[in-house]
Specification:
This protein has 492 residues and is α+β, with helices and mostly antiparallel strands. It has seven helices and 29 strands. The strands form six sheets. It has a six-stranded antiparallel barrel. Strands 10-11-12-15-14-13 form a six-stranded antiparallel barrel.
Length: 492
């Protein structure tokens, strides 16, 4: 569209006023010689001024809403909508403190973390440190359901644990992406339960890859500036395709600061997939190792020992003295390949050995005294740092201890006197000091009556019961899990 340009447009017109135009004036008006402004009486411009006004009005005034382009969809919101129902809250009931002699002194210590569903039948992945030492573990799903979880297995070599719940229906699941394809600067999304705020979403970028934070021999953490806080542990880190590329596990905070400082670390999805597959199949990781002690080969070391380029793993010594196979390696050898795959550094070598089958033999490409050679070594079993299998059976007790206390108008009331951290009620939200007013819709007058109502529901195979409680002069209903909840296979 041709443009009309002008200068010194007055805000109001009066008789005899003039407009001074640059050379780009309406074509029907005479043009002045180059370099001179054309002076035109207002009476001669009225038609053109009206045309200019109409053009501007068409361009500026809003038309029907359909004429405006809708904003592009937000990729983060789209990903969150697709995946959030498979992200869960993990609540672990911790054992009573050693110096706490009375079980009724305080409520059971509770720790909250995150996890995500990896199989529709109820397999849930989380961090080992979220559930370690727990007397009971519960999983809460975004739809408000709550399940007592069986702790199937924990990996001794990595901070990964596998839980099972029995939902009685297929659950939404997440899929793993390729963490080796992750690039520094890629956008990522973290979802979890920081400080107990369920389903919280944060976003950021990949700050670095292959970070060694000395948590295990295989460290290759993804570093991100997406907010990771206490309670985020075990939650998924997504790419913009909605695939899990990591498990949020570690946060760095300077000094006594307890919040996110923009430095968080996630276990890569390729490690997760490898470990979880073995845990589910064999109940252990059964990682392999080489009987070698190695170190990095930076540029200065490469120049010192005559290696053409940095990288690989420099052999220091054998960790199995007298082993003939390990003895075929010499101090100063640089391992460049592992069964044909490039070795980046000692941790990369350890990861490759861990993934290899114990008892098999692998071909190592070794740079020795100016030339490449091949050495075959056996894969030995890597001793687990801690026992890997820890099954937790369903609670055999309710764990709710009640007492009778005086109430208004000389009427006694039923109060929660203590909670057993190993009981099924431990994570329900019931606290010591709560008044029990009703079980289901039955008015409660004595502790014996309350326990009889709960026992009747347990014997009738009801997995849950509803309590009307009073706390701080406010009433609310709380759902509690009953003991020995029977496993329920998912419907197909």
């Amino acid at each position: 569209m041709p443009s009309v340009r002008g200068t010194n447009f007055p805000t109001s017109a009066s008789a005899g006023a003039t407009y001074h135009f640059s050379p780009a004036v309406p074509p029907s008006l005479p043009l002045a010689p180059a370099g001179r402004a054309q002076v035109i009486p207002l009476t001669g411009l009225r038609g053109h001024a009206l045309a200019v006004f109409l053009i501007i009005a068409v361009l500026v005034l809003p038309g029907p809403r359909a004429a405006w382009a809708d904003p592009p969809p937000d990729p983060i919101a789209d990903v969150v909508a697709k995946v959030r129902n498979a992200v869960v809250r993990i609540t672990s009931v911790q054992p009573k403190k050693k110096n706490a002699t009375d079980a009724g002194v305080a409520d059971p210590p509770i720790e909250v973390g995150s996890g995500f569903i990896i199989d529709p039948s109820g397999l849930v992945a989380t961090n080992r440190h979220v559930v370690a030492n727990a007397t009971a573990v519960f999983v809460g799903t975004p739809d408000g359901s709550r399940y007592r979880a069986e702790l199937i297995v924990m990996a001794g070599e990595t901070d990964i644990a596998l839980l099972r719940i029995y939902p009685g229906k297929p659950l939404p699941v997440l899929t793993f992406g390729d963490s080796d394809a992750v690039r520094v600067g890629d956008s990522v999304i973290a979802i979890g339960d920081p400080f107990g705020f369920g389903g919280s979403v944060s976003a950021g970028v990949v700050s670095a890859t292959n970070r060694n934070i000395q948590e295990s021999p295989f460290d290759e953490y993804i570093q991100t500036d997406a907010a990771i806080n206490h309670g985020s542990s075990g939650g998924p880190l997504f790419n913009l395709s909605g695939q899990v590329i990591g498990m949020d596990s570690v946060l760095f905070a300077p000094g006594t600061y307890a919040g996110s400082a923009g430095v968080g670390f996630a276990i890569p999805s390729n490690v997760l997939s490898f470990v979880l597959t073995r845990l589910e199949k064999d109940g252990q990781v059964a990682a392999g190792r080489l009987a070698l002690l190695t170190q990095r080969v930076p540029e200065l070391m490469a120049a010192a020992i005559g290696v053409p380029d940095p990288g690989g793993a420099l052999v220091i010594a054998s960790t199995a003295p007298g082993d003939a196979a390990a003895g075929s390696m010499q101090p100063g050898d640089v391992i460049k390949t592992f069964d044909g795959a490039v070795v980046l550094d000692p941790r990369d070598l350890a990861r490759k050995a861990a993934a290899a089958t114990v008892g098999s033999r692998v071909a190592l490409g070794v740079y020795r005294m100016g030339q490449m050679t091949t050495v075959e070594l056996p894969i030995l079993p890597l001793a687990a740092a801690t026992p890997t299998i820890k099954r937790s059976p369903p609670a055999a007790i309710l764990g709710l201890h009640l007492a009778l206390v005086p109430g208004p108008a000389k009427k006694s009331r039923v109060v929660v006197d203590a909670l057993d951290p190993s009981g099924s009620v431990a994570d329900s939200g019931v606290k010591k000091g709560d008044l029990i007013l009703r079980v289901q819709q039955q008015l409660i007058l004595t502790p014996e009556q309350a326990m009889a109502e709960l026992q009747a529901r347990t014997e009738a195979k009801h997995p849950y019961a509803a309590l009307l409680i009073e706390r701080d002069k406010k009433q609310s209903w709380i759902a509690i899990a009953l003991p020995n909840e029977p496993p329920r296979e998912p419907r197909t």
